Amino acid sequence: MKTYKIGSLPGDGIGPEVAAEGLKVLQAISDIDGFGYEIVDYPYSGEHYLKTKELVPDRMIEEWKTLDAVFLGAIGHPDVEPGLVERSVILGLRFGLDLYVNLRPIKLYAEHLCPLKDKTPDDIDIMVVRENTEGLYSQIGGIVKKGLPDEVATVVGVYTRSGVDRAIRYAFELAEGRKQARGPGQTAKLTMVDKANAIRPHDLWTRRFAEIGKEYPGIEKDHAYVDACCMWMVKNPEWFDVVVTTNLFGDIITDLGAMIQGGMGIAASGNIHPGKHGMFEPIHGSAPKYAGQNVANPLGSIAAIGMLLDFVDENKSAVRVENAIKALLSSKRIPSVDARSGLSTTEIGDMVVGTIREQAS
Ligand code: IPM
Ligand code: MG
User: Fold this and answer.
1) What is the overall mean pLDDT for the chain?
2) For 149, phi and psi rounded to 5 degrees?
3) What is the pLDDT of residue 232?
4) Which ligand 1 atom sits nearest the alpha carbon of residue 76?
5) Which helix (H) or strand (E) is 347 found in, with range?
6) Å from CA of 251 to ligand 1 middle
7) Is 115 exposed, middle or buried (0-12, 13-18, 19+ CB in 10 A)?
């Protein structure tokens, strides 16, 4: 029996509650599809930091490299300096394991979840490939003369040709895969999103996109500056298929994307070094105000388990997760993807498990 070693970082706030439902779904699917797994628990979180003053120790990266995948709940604590633990855990994993692709599906499962007028599931099915290790997240920079009138704050946006190329290539391959999956005569489109008009170094992205694009004659190519991209995602989301973009822009447009697919509660994310390492998380934060109440919606976390299964090549299992979520949302048995669905966190997890079992029988 194939057995996977999965690191689990439930984290802060609603993280442990939603992660528990993700793991519940993993358990049910492993029974159905006959694979094994071992969970290795890690305590790193804002909560853990407050108790112990411990962030992620450097040696952890080597240990995490031995795992098949990492599953994360949410990180962030109101009593800890903003970003300290997020940088240690989330960016620590992304940079430490060189998870250069952040894959963020924006998929509308049921029309009533969409805040946009007259948009249906056919209109919103986008895959964002966010470069995940460079750009304005480089951590190069800082503040001098803090608090003085002439204080200076700088940050360096880092874009390497190899970093840009690997993200763009991944996105083209993904578009090829979508084209194949759609069948003969069908197309797929890749849109490059940058800001090369104002931030001239982004010309590296625009240029490499055009050059690498020549290797993919079957893929339709498009380009949008990030501000226009935000506008089109609201006005005509059906124009987007696969999107490739820089780290910060990917962060921003996927929050917008989460809203047009129903809300932060459904959006999932895969941080991937193809063929090597992967970390999977819901894109929502720790939402301290909902913590400990069993009201947070675990669908983002459950969808992240789906992406994790796809990453470890349990593709049939991944499709089960997606189909169950789709069935429960489109039938309105789960009426919303936020904390006001009227269902508890654990009830939603149970419903997903029940639906997966029904659909498998
Ligand atoms: C995300 C988050 C993170 C990011 C934060 C918590 C560092 O917003 O995963 O989108 O900016 O990437
Ligand atoms: Mg974000």
Assistant:
1) 97
2) -60, -30
3) 98
4) 6
5) helix 345-360
6) 6
7) exposed
CA atoms of 47 and 292, how far apart (whole Å): 13
Please give the structure tokens belonging to residue 1: 């029996």
Mutation choice for ligand 1 from 12, 89, 91, 132, CB with most ligand atoms inside 8 A: 91
- List the one residue out of 100, 104, 121, 103 whose CA is nearest residue 112: 121
Indicate which residue's Cα is closest to atom 8 of ligand 1: 251
CA of 283 to the centre of ligand 2 (A): 6
How far is the centre of ligand 1, averaged over its atoms, from the C-alpha of 345 (Å)? 23
Would you say how long the chain is, in residues?
361
Ligand 1: which of 251, 271, 284 to mutate, judged by most atoms within 8 Å of the beta carbon?
A: 251
Q: Report pLDDT digits (tens) over 274-295.
A: 999 999 999 999 999 999 999 9
Most informative mutation of 12, 77, 90, 248 for ligand 1 (most atoms within 8 A of CB): 90
Q: Which residues line ligand 1 (CB under 6 A)?
A: 86, 90, 251, 283
CB 108, CB 124: distance < 8 Å: yes
Tell me phi and psi for residue 243, to 5 degrees: -125, 135
Q: Which amino acid is at 268?
A: A
List, for residues 2-31, the tens digit of each pLDDT value.
999 999 999 999 999 999 999 999 999 999
Token couple for 28: 């049910």
Instruction: Please tell me the distance from the alpha carbon of residue 188 to that of residue 290, in angstroms, as a whole number.
Output: 40
* Beta-carbon-side half-sphere exposure of residue 105 (alpha carbons within 13 Å): 20
- Give DSSP secondary structure letters for 46-104: HHHHHHH-----THHHHHHTTSSEEEEEE---TTS-TTHHHIIIIIHHHHHTT--EEEE
Strands (E), 77-124: 101-107
